[in-house]
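Design job #97: recover the sequence.
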């Protein structure tokens, strides 16, 4: 599937995997709606895309605010009338802690961003995905969603919930529209989140976000079946 003139929305696009994915999709001809909280980072991503000959629009919003998600969907509807590609990347790690020691307030915020905000995005953009000839979603996950790890309970639980939520949506759309959902585990990647989790790790010894972005873009232009799982080594 060619991505030329497709409308794509990428969350967490101000840095790391989100920014790299946005650049890779733009290089393949898609117009990218860049979403994140930090305008400065979004502007850097937008500038890099424009310098490379691509097109993008920034949307600096806090995804925890459901009202803002609705307004963004309205704006996309008015300007383009559809959404072809949705990359659910934005997430927070939270504090790595034993399950009995998880801070309730932080856990609530983590679930709101990692799960609730993604449900709100799907709800808001569902009408626009239905207008696409070939809607595609890439959902970023982690190995701890399927293989529980000590001290990673909060983050792992949120990613397990996200997988279930998005794959259920894919099943609901079967026979209604051509929507395909892929679950993407980027593996060890040199991101700010990875640095928080492994502060002593040398980032030059693991893959860079650009490699993940290219893999996601290649996936989205392929004929993958819904429910496909991609682990980027």
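Job complete. Output follows.
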């Amino acid at each position: 599937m060619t991505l030329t003139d497709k409308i794509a929305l990428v969350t967490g696009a101000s840095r790391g995997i989100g920014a790299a994915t946005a650049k890779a999709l733009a290089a393949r001809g898609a117009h990218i709606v860049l979403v994140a909280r930090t305008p400065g980072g979004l502007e850097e991503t937008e500038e890099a895309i424009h310098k490379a000959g691509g097109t993008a629009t920034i949307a600096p919003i806090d995804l925890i605010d459901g009202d803002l998600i609705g307004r963004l969907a309205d704006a996309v509807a008015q300007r383009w009338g559809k959404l072809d590609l949705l990359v659910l990347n934005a997430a927070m790690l939270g504090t790595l802690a034993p399950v009995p020691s998880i801070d309730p307030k932080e856990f609530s915020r983590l679930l709101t961003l990692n799960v609730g905000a993604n449900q709100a995005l799907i709800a808001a953009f569902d009408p626009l995905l239905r207008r696409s000839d070939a809607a595609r979603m890439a959902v970023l996950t982690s190995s701890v969603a399927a293989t529980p790890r000590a001290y990673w309970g909060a983050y792992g639980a949120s990613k397990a919930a996200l997988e279930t939520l998005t794959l259920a949506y894919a099943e609901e759309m079967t026979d209604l529209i051509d929507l395909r959902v892929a679950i993407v585990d980027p593996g060890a990647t040199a991101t700010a989140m990875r640095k928080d989790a492994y502060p002593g790790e040398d980032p030059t010894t693991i893959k860079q976000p650009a490699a993940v972005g290219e893999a996601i873009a290649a996936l989205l232009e392929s004929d993958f079946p819904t429910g496909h799982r991609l682990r980027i080594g």
